[in-house]
Amino acid sequence: MANFTLSTVQPDYEQINQQLTAYLTNKESWASAGNSKTGTLLIDAISAIGAYDQYSIWAAINETTLENAVLPESIYTNNIFLGNRLKRATPAKVSVSLQNTNFAVPYLEIPKFTQFTIEGEKFFNRDVIVFDGLNMQQTITLYEGQISSAQFTSSGSTYQKYNLTADSPFTISDEDILCYVGNDEFKRTTDAIFTQGSNAKIFYENSDQAGNVNCLFGDGIYGAIPSAGSSVIFKYAVTNGSSGNNTAVNQKVTANDYPDLIGETLTNPSGGDDAPSITFYQQLGSQSAAANGRAISRNDIRALVCKYPEIIDCRVYCQAEIAPLDKDWMNVIGLLLLTKPTFNEQSWKDLVTYLGNYGICGLQYKKYDAQPVPIDIKAILYLKPGATLTISQQKVEAAIRKYMTLQVGSLGRSFYKSDLE
Question: Phi then psi for 230, rounded to 5 degrees?
Answer without folding.
Answer: -75, 150
